[in-house]
Amino acid sequence: MRKIISILVRNHPGVLSHVAGLFTRRAYNIESIAAGETENPDVTRITITVSGDEVIFEQVTKQLRKLIDVIRVRDLKYAESITRELVLLTIYAGMEKRQEVIMIANAFGASVVDIAERTITLEFVGNQRKIDTILHALEAFKIKELARTGIVALPLESQIEQHETML
Amino acid sequence: MTSTKKTGAQIIIQSLIDAGVEHIFGFPGGAVIPIYDVLYDAPLKHILTRHEQGAVHAADGYARATGRVGVCLATSGPGATNLVTGLSTAHMDSVPLVAITGQVPVAMIGNDSFQEADIYGITIPVTKYNYLVKHIEDLQRVIKEAFYIAQTGRPGPVLVDIPKDIQTAKVRPKKIGPVHLPGYLSLGKGHPKQIKAILQAIKNAHRPVIYAGGGIVTSGASEELRKFIQKTQIPVTTTLMGKGVYPENKPLALGMLGMHGTKYANYAIYESDLIIAMGVRFDDRVVGNLAQFAPMAKIIHMDIDPAEIGKRMAVDIPIVGDLKTILCLINQKIQIQVRKSWIKQVEKLKQENPLIFEETGSLKPQFIIKTLSEITKGEIIITTDVGQHQMWTALYYHTTEPRRFISSGGAGTMGYGFPAAIGATVGRPDMPVVAITGDGSFQMCIQELATARTYNLPVKIFILNNGYLGMVRQWQELFYDRRYSFTNLEFNPDFCKVAEGYEIPSIRVTEAKEVRDAIDKALNIDGPVLVDFYIDKEENVIPMIPPGGGQTGFIGEGETYA
User: Fold this and answer.
1) Residue B206: what are its φ and ψ, rounded to 5°?
2) Quick one: which of A49, B107, B354, B440 could link to A31 by a disulfide (CB 3.0–4.6 Å)?
3) Could you tell me if residue A123 is inside a domain?
4) What is the ipTM metric for this complex?
């Protein structure tokens, strides 16, 4: 099972070591981790995607809450959150294949950010599903380099409101 | 407050004094010379150990004996890394410590400078929190926070790494406000709904057992526990860390449970229909097999740390909060109870499965501990090292008060006991302190004999000397076909001669009939003394449940070995 944990932490050097160290020490697997400032420069948001069963996930959450630098831990359920990841992808595509790549890119709303003699670099943003679909569509081309930011996520306020009124 | 500038080192010492520190255990080095310079005439007592590991264990023993924060000080690099085992020991047993280490100057960090080690990075997993101070303006706040974090909530060790140039830089000290750590410590006070559920469960239970641990000691909830037991007449078993929260010589006391616990404690747990777990963590040395622990019982788990709830054991009624507060609330509402048939059944378990050893033949370690327990009435402070002697002490020494049985439980650190006794006697000069150790463990911090001599600390060292790393040898005997691979300490020094070298009096005991006199004599000598007991070389710790075994899966006495 895959889960997204959104953590607000105090923004200072060492905090990432504390968070990452916890995962190492307790042998939890991190699938992706993304960190950046929030609206408050003293606070950083770390979005972590983890895999494991419910028991492990509960332990992860509780252990994270114990960290002194952690202000808030939130379990973001897929259905109730918006998730995005940015991908930079350089593929081998010379003159003869360029058009085909650009066509696929356009179909998925990906942008072309660089063209070289033998390669083309695309940028695309989306949720897991969209990214998987684009990568699948480009499978025929040989990848030179791929960089992913890891998932960032926020709760989908409208869904949560709706859910609350239903209750 | 004051208008004159002060050095970082002065601020450090002043902050320690402000935090109420009276004693520091430490060892000087290049990167802490400025701090030691201030210590030279500061109104603080510094105890110079002979190794940084001795200093951190002593600070730990001090903290456990007094309930106050233990403080140790070491230099950068190897000085700091020598603290790591001690920090891990304190971390595993939730002991409040503040460790201060020197670091190379800020500009030299990361250059592989002389005596540089990334102690901040190294100690992340073995501390509750740690700091590297890079700006002198942060120093006062950091030290204040360190003491706050170390002793609040579930206590633990905090390390503060301070570069040498921060120690010598100058700044005007400011008045600092209360600690502000958003997100830290949202302490439960015991949810009323859970209290109600607990009261109901106790009322419905026919065969309840209390399983009490170190959390009761930390919370200072021993009195409340005793009141609770008096009202409810529920038998109580304790973990190694919980020894003394209830007098072990009372009829309702079942002694220790778990791998080397008493048979009757483990059987009572197994037969119980309600386990009331207080300040414990269902550790693998207590619960080998989760399904075979208390198969018929509902489980109540009280703890200050929400992460302990459900970590190993699925529980029926969890309650998070300070144990003293929770027990106070329960005691206010609980009805007086009589449990004649269950108590009778427990009595029977005790009679049918007594803690016994063969009293004939060579000098038995159990006999020594039993005699010590009788002579002292279980009222003195005992520290132990780790191994067979630790378990014999846990079983045969009947501790009557909390903070009087000091042992490395979670980490199982050999070398802990003797320096911990030094710390305990510094913290509690009014109490006799006996360090019970083995010939293996003792040699891991034997250099602290110099510390005991220097300050004439009245630590009584009892070595249960069998010439083996006994616990490992026992496992090799039972599970590895008696292949005693490197557990035979073929050469040991003459410990009495070693003591003599340190000008410490010593006694050698080789026969049972000498035991009582030797203990009496040792307890009456002013200052340190070493007693070297030559015990039966291949005596085992019995009872024993093999690792992963259920609460009734004892290894048969006399079956595995003739």
Assistant:
1) -100, -30
2) A49
3) yes
4) 0.86
Q: How many domains would you assign to chain A? A: 2
Q: What pLDDT sits at residue B561? A: 29
Structural domain of A136? 82-153
Q: E-strand spans in B333-485? A: 381-384, 405-406, 433-438, 459-465
Q: Which residue in this structure is represented by tokens 């409340």? A: B224
Indicate which residue of B128, B164, B263, B324 is catalytic: B164
Distance between B129 CA and the closest CA of chain A, angstroms: 7
How high is the pLDDT of residue B182?
87
In this complex, do A71 and B132 lie within 8 Å of one another by their Cβ atoms? Answer: no
Residue among B14, B22, B108, B115 flagged as catalytic: B115
Q: What are phi and psi of B90, to 5 degrees?
A: -65, -40
- What is the predicted pLDDT for the residue at B559? 39
Same domain? For A100 and A41 the reply is no
Q: Measure the CA–CA gap between B275 and B285, rounded to whole angstroms.
A: 17
Report residue B287 as tokens: 């619960």
Same domain? For A101 and A144 the reply is yes
CATH class of B365-534: alpha beta
Quick one: pLDDT band at residue B470, thresholds 50, 70, 90?
very high
Q: What is the pLDDT of residues B3-50, one digit of tens each?
A: 699 999 999 999 999 999 999 999 999 999 999 999 999 999 999 999
Q: Which residue of A has its CA nearest to B158?
A: A68
Q: Across chain B, what does the average pLDDT equal? A: 96
Amino acid at B509: V
B313 assigned to active site: no
CB contacts of B125 in chain A (<8 Å) are 21, 24-25
Q: Decide if pLDDT at B152 tops 50.
A: yes
Instruction: Please tell me which residue of chain A has the smallest CA distance to B124.
Output: A18
Dig out the tokens for B397 from the structure.
């020494």
